[in-house]
Amino acid sequence: MIERLKQQAIEIGTPASIEEALELNERYSTDELREAADAIRQKWCGDAIHTCSIVNARSGRCSEDCKWCAQSGRHNTGVKEYDYISEEDMMMAFHTNRKRGVSCFSMVTSGRKVMPGHMVSFCRLFKKASDEGGVKLCASMGLLDREQLQQLWDAGVRKYHCNLETSRNYFPTLCSTHTIDDKLRTIAIAREIGFKVCCGGIIGMGEMMQDRLELAEMAREAGASSIPINILQPIKGTPIENIERITEEEVTRSVALMRFVAPKCTLHFAGGRAQLSREAMEKILRGGMNGALVGDMLTTIGNKVDEDYAMFDEIGYTC
Ligand code: SF4
Predict the structure, then answer these.
(1) Is the CB–ligand 1 distance for residue 149 below 6 Å?
(2) How many CB atoms lie within 10 A of CB 136?
(3) Which residue, judged by its Cα, is nearest atom 7 of ligand 1?
(4) Atom number, ligand 1, closest to the C-alpha of residue 175
(5) What pLDDT was estimated at residue 232?
(6) Which of 63, 66, 115 to mutate to test the pocket of ligand 1 (most atoms within 8 A of CB)?
(7) Count of CB atoms within 10 A of residue 193's CB?
(8) Residues in the chain with pLDDT < 70?
(9) How far apart are CA 244 and CA 259, in angstroms?
(10) What is the rounded CA–CA span in Å between residue 282 and residue 115?
(11) Of 94, 138, 189, 277, which has the fewest beta carbons less than 10 angstroms from its beta carbon?
(12) What is the reported pLDDT for 42?
């Protein structure tokens, strides 16, 4: 079975169904899944690692109640709070990451959506970065409407990030203030305007393997070119601070199976990978994953960039 699904993914990019991927999970070892996923990744994504970097342009004070998030104003996490990054900090982050050679640089804001007054300022910063060029620009600014997305496009942003977070079924247990459909609406408008879209989620929030696979399927069907995968690092003060941590083995299997479900997408490590051992990271990068967020994450400590690039090189990726 694994050989048939691997071949159909490699030859014509046919994704595995959720049922097929769950059967793979039942029947095959982690190494068998990884090896097949690596072959599918090589066919569709090649050996160039995808790297992106983010800067937190607005932090904390969010009206929403996402149970995993340090930035919700409803949780007591002690996260740093500010409404608007300074031009100096933003451009310094942009120049640093451009010099490092990241593929994509993103400004990320907390909140359901950007406040109208702030949009003009964020767009001015994007325009400045876009005029300097050298890196693809991405924005992650919540549930924007058409007018706001168009403003970003006009400022030179070409990728929009909006995480789906988890499966449609599991999402309401983690967030009650917005829905998966709200997210899909924003993603659809972004695609209509011309943005590439990046939408993934978080694993390790108490969900089942089926939820992770459904997340990958939903992102693929929404037209995502990349699917960032965060590994939950439970944050003190959030409602799921004591949730049992997902094991490295489970992360490895999940990524390999997500590659079967989304054969052509970039799958990239986002937050939380710093908690993995070096051995696990290498296995996952040779087991379906082909990208990584480098530098500091939003509210958790990232991996050191130079060490990351050395690791990608050793694994056999071109940087
Ligand atoms: S994930 Fe986004 S919308 Fe949800 S609480 Fe955090 S910042 Fe707000």
Answers:
(1) no
(2) 17
(3) 110
(4) 4
(5) 96
(6) 66
(7) 13
(8) 296-303
(9) 25
(10) 41
(11) 277
(12) 96
